[in-house]
Amino acid sequence: MTETHTPVPVPAEQYPETVPLTAEHLLTNRRPEPTGGWRRLVYQVSGGRVIPAESAAELERRTLIAHAQTPVASGHHRIAVMSLKGGVGKTTTTAALGNTLASLRGDRVIAIDANPDRGTLGIKVKAETAATIRTLLAEAPHIVRYADARAFTSQSPARLEVLASDTDPAVSEAFNAEDYRTVAGLIERYYSICITDCGTGLLHGAMGATLELADQIVLVTLVAVDGASSAAATLDWLTAHGHGALVRNAIVVLNAVEPKSHVDVDLLERHFSNRCRAVVRVPFDPHLKEGAEVDLARLRPTTRGAYLRLAAAAGQAFGQRPDRGN
Fold this sequence. Notes:
single chain, alpha/beta, 8-stranded mixed sheet, 13 helices
């Protein structure tokens, strides 16, 4: 008979200090491959053996991407993109923010058009279906899995899904608060992030439910005197109507729809920075001026960088559901 012995545990303090057996510790070269500039040239000339340290800009970009990729702790996060007046780039901001987040994340991101009348979010992505938010509402009882919901959306190359509204004002019906709650409840089952393109104004039917359910708001304004005044008035109204927490956690987008402006943008940024969590400047971009599909690849680098900062600012709120109390 073979005698067996039970190993005697060795106290932890008697083990020598060890290094974790992970790739980060065991591999001697873990720096990311340079994407451009002289660092890329050195990398190529050396046959990949020399990877210069990242520049400050590259480190900042990686940090922004990490913020945009923050996991949604609550399982679902709602962003309401709003403005008091039309023509400020609210729908374009919705599409660009959604595309940026979807391109960086592995979960599902959707943008929905909650305009009470005719909305234009649907033209910001190549249409894959004629279905609209009204169609989805009519079929709501039969939507029991992601594939059912996907049949009502169009998807951009960046993986953003868009739920459009009716484009014909003759057949569109007013989109009210109960409609929004129904759609929001369906979306919550299958998507991690929902970005709502709100209608202009603050008093239409769906806005009350949108604000009630929102985890954060993105307020879009023109770099112009009247636009800034309208945005400030919007923040005043929200605070006065019990949405102070949303205001403090808000992101203000200063949207330049013209190449040049005589407005003091620094002053605008300081004003809104004192009232909200973040301010992001989006420069003029000819591609966005077209008013058609939003293609991140066609944006100028500075514009893509601005939307990355917007996505990062939004991502900083994904870690927890904000307190909506005043």
